Amino acid sequence: MKVSLNWLKDFVGIEQTHVELAEMLTMAGLEVEGLEHRGHKLDNIAVSRILDILPHPNANRLSICKLDVGKDEVSVVCGATNIATGMLVPLALPGNTLPDGTKIKESTIRGEVSCGMLLAEDEMGLTDDHTGIMVLPENLTPGQPLSASMDLEDWVFEIGITPNRIDCASVIGVAREIAALTKKPLTMPDIRFETSDKKIDDLAQVTIIDPEGCPRYSAGLAEGVNIGPSPFWMRYRLHASGIRAINNVVDITNYVLLELGQPLHAFDYYELADRRIVVKRAEVGDVFTTLDGQDRDLNDQTLMICDGQRQVAVAGIMGGLNSEITEATTTVLIESAYFNPTSIRRSSKWLSLATEASYRFERNIDVEGTVFALKRSLALIARLAEGFVAEGIIDCYPRPWSAPEITLRVDKANEFLGTSIDKREVVDHISALHMEIKEQDHNKLLVKPPAFRGDITREADLFEEIARLVGYDNIPVTLPLIKPTEEEQPELCLRDRCKALLVGLGFTEVITYSFISPQSADLLGAGENSDLRSFVKLRNSLSQDQSVMRT
Amino acid sequence: MKDQLLELKIRALKALESVAERSDVEKLTQQYLGRKGCFTLLLKRLPELPKEERPAIGKLVNQLKEELQRAFQAATDALTAKAEHEISVFDVTLPGRRSPLGHMHPITQTTEEICRIFVTLGFRVVQGPEVELDYYNFEALNMPKDHPARDMQDTFYISDNVVLRTHTSPMEIRVMEAQSPPVSIISPGKVYRPDSDISHTPMFHQVEGLLVDRGVTFGDLKGTLTTFVHQMFGHDTKLRFRPSFFPFTEPSAEVDIQCVVCKGKGCRTCSHTGWIEILGSGMNDPELYRFVGYDPESYSGFAFGLGVERIAMLKSGLDDIRLFFENDIRFLQQF
């Protein structure tokens, strides 16, 4: 999981340097496996304003731009077609080197002198967009360095997420962890938006036929959306996280996935027959075309999202080609659901299809978080795609979640960890992790973990949380009293003695793979029905040469 | 004269039979063939003989002299050989004959070194099967079918329920099933995962450790593994315990040691972090006790697992794990 430092700072105050933060996260169990510096090699790229665009006298496809770079005016030959007089654009002056290593030189292009180069986003390593010269916001000042003007410098943390901590496969999850470790407040993302006078209940319906596979399905709707590219800031963050930008609505679903860890899916509302969503299992023999254009054979275990007549998405894994968002889409229905982890895992294996969504669903996401994530996406759609959000949301929740109640004994925790932490400190740590605590007596606490911490169900799980927040390094080192038990296995002693004797006689020990080729029996001259051919076969060997176990 | 000569020869040969030293042979040579020896003296009397007898006697003298010369030489050679032989048996200053040196495989040596440290601490060595039931490899280690943690380890399958063990941890369950607490074992052995590149081989070696007793703490886990690291890598080696996840331990900890190459400054070996992960560990998850019938309220304990190749590579500075199984004799004989 790649997490941007600037994005984290939206939700929690961070005073440490990127190196200190990486160290803190690693020592809390979120191992930082890599750190990437972004947007920092752009100091020599300046904001410039296009004063005039003249046709190139010797080339039809080129033009000459007169640019204001603060103190100076320069002239640059450019081939892009998206430029216009008055625009602010990034300019690399001669002597600069682009992030990809390209050196900018003053040159003569078809007889005209060009004092630099106007740049597209991908040429600066910001996104992979190469549709034209990057158009900068109007509030920037010509002559100023680009990186500082747009606050582009960032650090991206590559975090190894262990299977139990899927809540941290999101920016908010990591921010929440930082807040707990530093005891700082957490700010949640903005989910405010205005609604139209249409009510969602009049526009769409959701039916869950298989509540086992789908304990919760929340949905919202926005009309009149303008499908187009997302703003730069969003594409910049998606790119930092390794997600390709597609269009504003799809980008918003991906953005919220990264931000909150809740996979969302956007349907083209007018492609949904009967304007309804039905969640049910597929039937054997069904074939479904996913977004990537592949035909997929389904089985009767595959949970599907259907409309009034047909299948429109493989639940929790990938949407369908038949209802995807296109340039022509005007109304979108956003799905924010919770699917059964085992069901998603089986289908993902069956289809050999693993996605960002299936990865999270099969590890048990926050069942209580679907509505918040839905509202976050609707707020962004209202803001960035000029959508009119219908009033209300649909929230089918046939299997409501209830928090496990765990009795935590402070003395037992200390006995187990070898520590002497007082109850006050235990309460501080546990409550910093968003757990509800009821103090029962001087020793016992009744703890209710939040839904996003599905990994915490027992007292031992709480011991781990205490140890983590106290810091493993702060737990005192002691030695156990080990009572020697039985003798060593006699055959081990014999084997070791034989080895020692043979090495004493001048032999050198080799260790070879335990798997061999079935043809090795031929070399021994074994007959067709020889016992030498009764191998233990591997089902998934790496090669024919290593496909059976020697016996 | 002729008879005198022949008698002389017989006497000489007889004398030769009883010699024991090379110096005695020399004396005999002087006595018979020397400038003042018997034959020379006899030859001096040659002019006394009739003219016609002289050539025949002269010839006979030379013939006998040659004969004796050979006999004395043979006796000298025999005595020399005998003397040399006697000297070689007794000369302790001569260098001994070298027998070729044998070599234990580096993995065996490292395994033994690891085990020796834990045996000193009171652990007992046990070993178990490499072809293992799914139950022991996964299920009883708190990894039911469809558990995402199974993704952490790709697995060789023999049938639906039989696998090549992916770690030595199944031995934890086997040992706990077989005996009641206290338990303190280490279990070295081969493990298998379908992976093959510069840092992975489809077969490699682990050492598992398990301790179960009353009142074992997380501090004890830290103490035991700190002792191990200090003995294995030197007493000035820094180490750290880092929270992690294993389905069969709670809390779980990975142990990093300060990079042995750069001493923590950051280099290629440690991916510029200054730390190298060397083992996984944790307090036994109470769920395991449920599988083997131990009472989690009364007993606690810890377990750990370490990769032998990794430790052998760190200690020898190797960077390609595959070298261990290529079995190039020139490689193996360096250990």
Unreliable residue stretches of chain B: none
Number of strands of chain B: 10
Query: What percentage of amino acids of chain A are in beta strands?
Result: 15-25%
Main beta sheet of chain B:
7 strands, mixed
N-to-C CA distance of chain A: 44 Å
Strand-residue fraction of chain B? 15-25%
Radius of gyration of chain B: 41 Å
Sketch the topology of chain B as an H/E string, one letter per element.
HHHHHEEHEEHEEHEEEHEHHH
What does the model show?
The complex is a heterodimer of chains A (551) and B (335). With 551 residues, chain A is of the alpha+beta class. Chain A has 15 helices and 29 strands. In chain A, strands 11, 13, 14, 21, 22 and 23 form a six-stranded mixed β-sheet that branches. A five-stranded antiparallel β-sheet of chain A has the order 5-4-3-6-9. In chain A, helix 7 (248-260) runs antiparallel to helix 10. Chain A starts with a strand and ends with a strand. In chain B, a hairpin with a 2-residue loop joins strand 7 and strand 8. In chain B, strands 1-5-6-10-9-8-7 form a seven-stranded mixed β-sheet, with helices on both faces. Chain B has a three-stranded antiparallel β-sheet with strand order 2-4-3. Chain B has two domains: 2-88; 106-332, Bira Bifunctional Protein, Domain 2 (BirA Bifunctional Protein, domain 2), CATH 3.30.930. Chain B has helices spanning 2-17, 22-33, 38-44, 54-90, 106-121, 134-137, 170-178, 218-233, 286-292, 308-316, 323-326, 329-332, and strands at 124-125, 131-133, 157-159, 162-164, 183-192, 203-213, 239-246, 249-258, 275-284, 300-307. With 335 residues, chain B is α+β, with helices and mostly antiparallel strands. The interface between A and B is large, with 71 and 73 residues.
Highlighted features:
heterodimer; A: 551 residues; alpha+beta; six-stranded mixed beta sheet; five-stranded antiparallel beta sheet; 15 helices; globular; B: 335 residues; BirA Bifunctional Protein, domain 2; 2 domains; seven-stranded mixed beta sheet; three-stranded antiparallel beta sheet; 10 strands; rod-shaped
